[in-house]
Amino acid sequence: MTTDYRKADPKYTAFVPHTAEEAIDLFFRFKRGGLRPEHHPETFVWVSRALDVEEGEKFEEWLCAPQGVSASPTMAYTVDPRIEAERLQLVKEAEARDAADRLDEMTISEEEHDEKEEPDVEMFTPSAR
Q: Does residue 79 have a pLDDT over 90?
């Protein structure tokens, strides 16, 4: 297989990629050429049209995780003990409030269920016209 010398031009997009690397390169050439984000799905299909199964899997893996998948997940930050203590205190207070609200909802007040006296309403008889 000979190398296409025209690929040296960063604006050249008239090639069919046969490896995941070439497909990613072609996608970024289109992107640098002004490809709009709403056209990315169709472009992914277009640049991967000639990839075999193995290269297609590599391209799909790149689509899902461009930086690669780490075997050991790392935290982006370390937990500040003061903030964590405050968070736990707020959770405790919120749960206590919720429990009190539930208890209030379950309590039956006898005053609410007493028969209320209806206000005196004077009845008017319709007048004959």
A: no
